[in-house]
Amino acid sequence: MAQSRPRLDQINIVSGNPEASIAFYRRLGVEIAEDRIWRTASGIHHVTAVSHETGSTLGLDIDSMAFAQRWNTGWQGQDGLRGKVVVGFSLPSRDAVDAVYADLTGAGHPGLQPPYDAVWGARYAVVEDPDGIAVGLMSPVSPEHRSPPPPI
Protein backbone atom coordinates (compact mmCIF):
# COMPACT_ATOMS: atom_id res chain seq x y z
CA MET A 1 0.00 0.00 0.00
CA ALA A 2 3.05 2.32 0.07
CA GLN A 3 2.49 3.48 -3.53
CA SER A 4 -1.17 4.19 -2.69
CA ARG A 5 -0.41 6.29 0.38
CA PRO A 6 -3.12 8.97 0.75
CA ARG A 7 -2.02 12.62 0.88
CA LEU A 8 -4.02 15.22 2.83
CA ASP A 9 -5.01 17.86 0.30
CA GLN A 10 -8.52 19.20 0.97
CA ILE A 11 -10.91 20.52 3.58
CA ASN A 12 -14.54 20.62 2.45
CA ILE A 13 -17.14 22.49 4.50
CA VAL A 14 -20.81 21.64 4.15
CA SER A 15 -22.61 24.95 4.49
CA GLY A 16 -26.19 25.66 5.46
CA ASN A 17 -25.82 29.05 3.72
CA PRO A 18 -23.11 29.07 1.04
CA GLU A 19 -23.66 32.78 0.29
CA ALA A 20 -22.91 33.64 3.93
CA SER A 21 -19.90 31.29 3.92
CA ILE A 22 -18.49 33.00 0.83
CA ALA A 23 -18.93 36.41 2.49
CA PHE A 24 -17.23 35.16 5.67
CA TYR A 25 -14.19 33.67 3.95
CA ARG A 26 -13.83 36.69 1.65
CA ARG A 27 -13.92 38.96 4.71
CA LEU A 28 -11.25 36.74 6.24
CA GLY A 29 -9.10 37.43 3.18
CA VAL A 30 -9.68 34.36 1.03
CA GLU A 31 -9.95 35.35 -2.62
CA ILE A 32 -12.92 33.55 -4.16
CA ALA A 33 -13.34 34.23 -7.86
CA GLU A 34 -16.87 34.32 -9.23
CA ASP A 35 -16.00 31.69 -11.84
CA ARG A 36 -15.18 29.27 -8.96
CA ILE A 37 -18.80 29.37 -7.70
CA TRP A 38 -21.28 26.84 -9.12
CA ARG A 39 -24.83 28.14 -9.07
CA THR A 40 -28.06 26.59 -10.28
CA ALA A 41 -31.60 27.97 -10.25
CA SER A 42 -31.87 26.73 -6.64
CA GLY A 43 -28.76 28.59 -5.40
CA ILE A 44 -25.05 28.12 -4.78
CA HIS A 45 -23.95 24.50 -4.47
CA HIS A 46 -20.15 24.39 -4.79
CA VAL A 47 -17.33 26.86 -4.20
CA THR A 48 -13.64 26.28 -4.73
CA ALA A 49 -12.30 28.82 -2.26
CA VAL A 50 -8.64 27.79 -2.34
CA SER A 51 -7.20 25.44 -4.92
CA HIS A 52 -3.90 23.93 -5.92
CA GLU A 53 -3.95 26.26 -8.95
CA THR A 54 -3.47 29.19 -6.54
CA GLY A 55 -0.28 27.60 -5.24
CA SER A 56 -1.82 26.16 -2.09
CA THR A 57 -1.01 22.61 -1.01
CA LEU A 58 -4.38 22.36 0.76
CA GLY A 59 -7.67 23.02 -1.02
CA LEU A 60 -10.74 24.58 0.63
CA ASP A 61 -14.17 23.88 -0.84
CA ILE A 62 -17.64 24.82 0.35
CA ASP A 63 -20.68 22.75 -0.66
CA SER A 64 -24.40 23.13 -0.07
CA MET A 65 -26.16 20.50 2.00
CA ALA A 66 -28.13 19.47 -1.11
CA PHE A 67 -24.97 18.88 -3.17
CA ALA A 68 -23.20 17.07 -0.30
CA GLN A 69 -26.03 14.54 -0.28
CA ARG A 70 -25.34 13.86 -3.97
CA TRP A 71 -21.63 13.09 -3.69
CA ASN A 72 -21.98 11.27 -0.35
CA THR A 73 -24.97 8.92 -0.46
CA GLY A 74 -24.38 8.09 3.22
CA TRP A 75 -25.74 11.58 3.99
CA GLN A 76 -28.89 11.36 1.87
CA GLY A 77 -32.01 12.39 3.75
CA GLN A 78 -30.08 13.89 6.68
CA ASP A 79 -30.98 17.35 7.94
CA GLY A 80 -28.00 17.90 10.27
CA LEU A 81 -25.27 18.36 7.67
CA ARG A 82 -24.67 22.07 8.27
CA GLY A 83 -21.13 22.51 9.57
CA LYS A 84 -19.98 19.00 8.70
CA VAL A 85 -16.44 18.81 7.41
CA VAL A 86 -14.90 16.36 5.01
CA VAL A 87 -11.14 15.87 5.26
CA GLY A 88 -9.95 14.99 1.77
CA PHE A 89 -7.07 12.75 0.79
CA SER A 90 -5.77 12.34 -2.73
CA LEU A 91 -4.65 9.01 -4.07
CA PRO A 92 -2.51 8.34 -7.15
CA SER A 93 -5.06 6.30 -9.11
CA ARG A 94 -8.67 5.18 -9.43
CA ASP A 95 -7.68 1.66 -8.34
CA ALA A 96 -5.98 3.08 -5.24
CA VAL A 97 -9.27 4.69 -4.15
CA ASP A 98 -11.00 1.30 -4.36
CA ALA A 99 -8.15 -0.45 -2.53
CA VAL A 100 -7.90 2.06 0.35
CA TYR A 101 -11.70 2.12 0.74
CA ALA A 102 -11.75 -1.70 0.88
CA ASP A 103 -8.90 -1.74 3.39
CA LEU A 104 -10.52 0.80 5.72
CA THR A 105 -14.04 -0.66 5.57
CA GLY A 106 -12.54 -4.15 5.91
CA ALA A 107 -10.93 -2.97 9.14
CA GLY A 108 -14.38 -1.97 10.44
CA HIS A 109 -14.53 1.74 9.58
CA PRO A 110 -17.99 2.72 8.27
CA GLY A 111 -18.22 3.41 4.57
CA LEU A 112 -20.47 6.37 3.79
CA GLN A 113 -19.99 6.44 0.01
CA PRO A 114 -18.59 3.44 -1.83
CA PRO A 115 -16.15 4.29 -4.64
CA TYR A 116 -17.81 5.69 -7.75
CA ASP A 117 -17.04 7.89 -10.73
CA ALA A 118 -17.97 11.40 -9.56
CA VAL A 119 -19.33 14.06 -11.90
CA TRP A 120 -16.09 16.07 -11.68
CA GLY A 121 -14.15 13.14 -13.18
CA ALA A 122 -12.45 11.57 -10.17
CA ARG A 123 -12.96 8.21 -8.53
CA TYR A 124 -14.32 9.14 -5.11
CA ALA A 125 -15.30 7.43 -1.85
CA VAL A 126 -16.05 8.48 1.75
CA VAL A 127 -15.35 6.63 5.01
CA GLU A 128 -15.74 7.70 8.64
CA ASP A 129 -12.87 7.92 11.06
CA PRO A 130 -13.30 6.64 14.66
CA ASP A 131 -14.81 10.00 15.72
CA GLY A 132 -17.38 10.09 12.91
CA ILE A 133 -15.50 12.61 10.74
CA ALA A 134 -16.02 12.04 7.02
CA VAL A 135 -12.82 11.28 5.13
CA GLY A 136 -12.90 11.62 1.34
CA LEU A 137 -10.66 9.52 -0.88
CA MET A 138 -10.12 10.91 -4.38
CA SER A 139 -8.17 9.93 -7.48
CA PRO A 140 -6.81 12.44 -9.94
CA VAL A 141 -9.49 13.99 -12.16
CA SER A 142 -9.87 12.28 -15.51
CA PRO A 143 -11.70 14.30 -18.21
CA GLU A 144 -13.08 11.14 -19.85
CA HIS A 145 -14.89 10.29 -16.58
CA ARG A 146 -16.62 13.68 -16.23
CA SER A 147 -20.40 13.85 -16.49
CA PRO A 148 -23.00 16.61 -16.33
CA PRO A 149 -23.73 17.88 -12.81
CA PRO A 150 -26.91 16.58 -11.19
CA PRO A 151 -30.00 18.77 -11.08
CA ILE A 152 -30.24 20.33 -7.63
Task: Summarize this structure as a short list of keywords or feature phrases.
152 residues; alpha+beta; 2,3-Dihydroxybiphenyl 1,2-Dioxygenase, domain 1; eight-stranded mixed beta sheet; 8 strands
| Strand adjacency order, main sheet | 2-3-4-1-5-8-7-6
Give the tally of structural domains.
Answer: 1
Distance, first to last CA: 37 Å
Helix content: 10-25%
Number of strands: 8
User: CATH homologous superfamily name?
Assistant: 2,3-Dihydroxybiphenyl 1,2-Dioxygenase, domain 1
Fraction in beta strands: 25-35%
Structural class: alpha+beta
Total number of helices: 3
Q: Rg to the nearest angstrom? A: 15 Å
Q: pLDDT average, as an integer? A: 91
N-to-C order of helices and strands: EHEEEHEHEEE
Q: What is the CATH topology?
A: 2,3-Dihydroxybiphenyl 1,2-Dioxygenase, domain 1
Largest sheet: 8 strands, mixed
Descriptive account of the structure:
The structure is a single chain. The protein is α+β, with helices and mostly antiparallel strands. It has one domain: 2,3-Dihydroxybiphenyl 1,2-Dioxygenase, domain 1 (Roll), CATH 3.10.180.10. It has three helices and eight strands; from the N terminus they run E-H-E-E-E-H-E-H-E-E-E. An eight-stranded mixed sheet has the order 2-3-4-1-5-8-7-6. The radius of gyration is 15 Å and the shape is globular. The relative contact order is 0.19.
Layout of helices and strands:
Elements: E1 7-15, H1 18-28, E2 37-40, E3 43-50, E4 59-64, H2 65-71, E5 85-90, H3 94-106, E6 111-117, E7 123-128, E8 134-138
Parallel strand pairs: 1-4, 5-8
Antiparallel strand pairs: 1-5, 2-3, 3-4, 6-7, 7-8
